[in-house]
Amino acid sequence: MAPHHPHVGLGGILALAEAKGVRHVVGLQRRQGPAARYVRDLVAQGYVGDVRAARVSVGVDAFPPVMPERVAWTFDVDAFTHVLSIYGGHFLDVLFQIIGPPKDLTAIVETQFPELTVLETGKTVPSAKPDEVLAIGTLENGGLFSVQLEGAQKFPTGLQVDITGTEGVLRLTNDRAFENTEDNTVHGVDGDSGNGSALAVLPVPEEYRSLPDASLDESVQDLASCTPRSPATGPTAPPRRPRSRTPYGSTT
After folding, report:
1. C-beta of residue 70 within 8 angstroms of C-beta of residue 120
2. How far apart are CA 175 and CA 59, in angstroms?
3. For 97-149, what is each residue's pLDDT tens digit?
4. 32, 70, 159, 187: which could form a disulfide with 171 (CB 3.0–4.6 Å)?
5. pTM for this structure?
6. Integer angstrom CA distances of residue 44 from 100, 193, 227
């Protein structure tokens, strides 16, 4: 893994990689999930009309104040492994690929756990990593958006995305933002719903599910959706292997 260069923007990181001939990839796979792609298409087809606002809440138990020694390398903010860089990267990408790019953004980040502890030894380390993020902004299409990211939750609140428009509402939910056994659930209501003003579950059409049934969690299957496709069989799910959760939100 290449060292992180603090205070270098995304364009600068890309320029550094290209100048040194480093092969690189941006792994923002959550946009590949069936539910996320379905909601993107519903918005593009005018289900909600003109987008007025979008609200995103992501709450995870990743990055708690006490973590095993094997992930102590994440304690350093310059390792670029925290709630904002990982969950912010994934779910801001999901949001903006659904409703379009932001025009302006204002954000507050807070380090609510300024001291982290190594589980096995009790050693404490000062930390400047953000574990609480709030952002508001405007979209290029004139709508507004707000985002809350919260790590180290004792009781994870999961994912909720609300998109309101002039003609309808869409909601994307999951009990877990990552390492989820089921894909996100889509809820919606518009003038053609026939159920008054109540949100109802909108089943994701089968054509959005391009992978065969697998035992892997949905966030891993989203990544598999990025792999090359066979003309005959489509993408192939990776073979199952034992996995365990890590405290910073990925699998091993």
Report:
1. no
2. 9
3. 999 999 999 999 999 999 999 999 999 999 999 999 999 999 999 999 999 99
4. 187
5. 0.78
6. 10, 18, 25
